[in-house]
Q: What sequence folds into this?
């Protein structure tokens, strides 16, 4: 089967049964929280920007013992020549294989795949096998790689088994992709304001009512670990 690009998905209104919670520090507007997916995640998709290298190291180091059954895919907004430094640090703190993904690479559980600089990364399914696909299509949200591109492919390829995580960062990259994940039955966790260097990307997801949880950084890995074990964590800090 030829490798193909994953299509985008349009917006839908927030779930009518979502409960309301108040955001973290200095968040004036309440936001609704969605339900977690009924099934355990089959893959983790993470987006981050400003403050992202430190946030990723913190989350992935704590999450490493739980990643034996799932792969992790990461889009981080950093210059292309910084990717190797970041992946080397993640490999060091997690003791797992973390590297810039190759086009056509088959994704395996327990490995952390980063989008290389200046190309978009998608994850498509060839039968039962997740395959990583690069794209040189134009930037989205002024970003390349873009979180939205990865998250849309997550929705298409994993449906309810996709878990998105939006960490600290400027702008709103990840918003449209989070909506695609939710529309496909998956779930999204957003980092809270108090623990974010810049509460832009996670804020956009939270105030749009797309998050199943809005959490401090140090609670995200335990929450994901619980989900992998089939336990629904608390939704908010």
A:
């Amino acid at each position: 089967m030829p490798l193909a690009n994953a299509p985008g998905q349009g917006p839908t209104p927030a779930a009518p049964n979502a409960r309301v919670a108040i955001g973290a520090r200095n968040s004036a507007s309440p936001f609704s929280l969605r339900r977690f997916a009924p099934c355990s995640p089959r893959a983790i998709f993470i987006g981050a920007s400003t403050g992202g290298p430190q946030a990723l190291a913190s989350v992935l180091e704590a999450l490493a013992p739980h990643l034996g059954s799932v792969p992790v895919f990461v889009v981080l907004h950093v210059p292309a020549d910084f990717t190797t430094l970041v992946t080397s640090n993640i490999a060091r703190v997690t003791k797992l294989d973390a590297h810039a993904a190759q086009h056509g690479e088959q994704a395996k559980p327990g490995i952390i795949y980063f989008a290389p600089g200046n190309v978009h990364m998608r994850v498509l399914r060839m039968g039962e096998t997740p395959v990583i696909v690069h794209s040189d299509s134009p930037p989205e949200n002024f970003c390349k790689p873009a979180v939205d591109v990865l998250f849309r492919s997550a929705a298409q390829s994993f449906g309810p088994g996709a878990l998105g995580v939006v960490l600290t960062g400027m702008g709103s990259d990840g918003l449209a992709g989070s909506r695609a994940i939710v529309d496909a039955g998956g779930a999204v966790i957003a980092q809270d304001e108090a623990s974010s260097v810049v509460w832009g990307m996670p804020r956009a997801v939270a105030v749009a009512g797309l998050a199943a949880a809005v959490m401090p950084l140090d609670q995200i890995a335990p929450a994901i670990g619980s989900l992998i074990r089939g336990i629904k964590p608390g939704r908010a800090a």
